[in-house]
Amino acid sequence: FQAEDGIRDYKVTGVQTCALPISELIEGQLLQLSAVASGLGDFESADAAAVELIQRLQARLPPKHPAFLPAYRQRAFCLSSLGRHAEAEQLFERALALHREVIGRSGMTLSDLENDFGGALALAGRFRSAVSHMQTAVGLMAEVLGGEGRVDGITLNNLGSAQEAVGDYPTALRTMRTAAERLEQRRSARDLEVLKTRGNLARTLALAGDVAGGRVLMQQVLRDLVVVEGEGGGLWLAFNQVRLAQIERLGGNRDAAF
Fold first, then answer.
1. Rounded distance, CA 152 to CA 116, Å?
2. Residue 214: which of 224, 201, 226 has the closest Cα?
């Protein structure tokens, strides 16, 4: 039994275990820890775990090993969430370059990196660059899955939000409608991701000039969110109540309260 280098195979009640180096177990746990912490909004802890993961990888692997890709992606997400946009952009660029060099210029991992990079750029207010990377992500995903009709609704929702942010409302509206349709085909009508996307669509409808349509759709989203989050409300109910007030103001109701 070599405690530092790996776990030796052994038998328990006749079942053979799978050998896995302790270093890889720890690295996997650090990646999961960072993901869980970021999901809880604790981006400082998430970033610390991602930093330790990268340091461990650097200590045992050559710099162009593909194992760095998920680590770079996770840390770049943490940096973006912490507002360290320049550092996040540099790390996403490094991850993209690494993928292209050691794996290739296609695949779902590359699509995910492009999509996440687009999200980080949007968070930094660089919406035109965000649209470019998100469009690349959609194209890569379509290539892998066998057509744009198979691209998932969440990816399209991200693209539509960026298109809206640059003021391309007609294109954003088409993208958002497709995103909502795709999600509704695969999930229940009151799934939170469906409601998020329909809320985005309502906002885009109003910005594109259909204030009445946006109002009706947003009111339905709010009714469904009350069912999902409860009468007391949650984050998304409060967020979309503000959006409804914004839609009302677009329609000329200046007294609508945020």
1. 15
2. 201
The mean pLDDT value for 30-49 works out to: 97
Cβ-contact 47, 78 below 8 angstroms = yes
Structure-token pair, residue 167: 């003021």
For residue 161, give the nearest of 117, 204, 221 by alpha carbon: 204
Amino acid at 143: E
| Residue 243 parent element (H or E) | helix 235-250
* CA 196 to chain centroid: 13
- Residues 47 and 51: their CA atoms lie apart, in Å, by 6
Q: In whole angstroms, what is the distance from residue 146 CA to residue 129 CA?
A: 26
Q: Specify the pairing of strand 11-12 against strand 15-16.
A: antiparallel
Do 46 and 78 contact (CB within 8 A), yes or no? yes
CB 253 within 8 A of CB 209: no
Residue type, 191: D
| Alpha carbon distance 76, 151 (integer Å) | 24
The percentage of residues in the chain with a pLDDT greater than 90, rounded to a whole number, is 83
- Using pLDDT thresholds of 50, 70 and 90, give the confidence band for residue 253: confident
Mean pLDDT over 54-67 rounds to 96
Cα–Cα distance, 2 to 17 (Å, whole number):
15
Cβ-based burial of 87 (10 A; exposed 0-12, middle 13-18, buried ≥19): middle
**Across-strand partners of 15?**
12
Angle at 115 between CA 97 and CA 61, to 5 degrees: 40
Residue 50: Cβ within 10 Å count? 29
